[in-house]
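Readers of this paper often ask what the protein records in our data store actually look like. This encoding replaces a full spatial description with a residue-level series of whole-number codes. For reference, a complete record is included directly beneath this paragraph.
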Amino acid sequence: MNEQSNQEPGSEIEAGSERSSMKGALIWIGVAGFGLALTAVAARVLFFRRQSDPTGQRIQALIDEANSLLKTLDDQRNSA
């Protein structure tokens, strides 16, 4: 049994075309959103770098010195 629909013959093609153009628009909106997010992250990384403060530099120097002393101590223990 074949049922006839009340739709015009070209309306299915038009609906498919509308869905296709809607899908394409959503894809481009997604691409633009991704690009915007990537740009925001890059700007944040580049422009909002932490300024190196003297305290942080001094702490790092002390850590490096302590590591050097520990290495020297280990070398002396191994050679004795």
In short: The CA atoms of residues 29 and 35 lie 10 Å apart. The chain is about 80% helix and 0% strand. The mean pLDDT is 84. The helical segments are 11-47, 54-79.
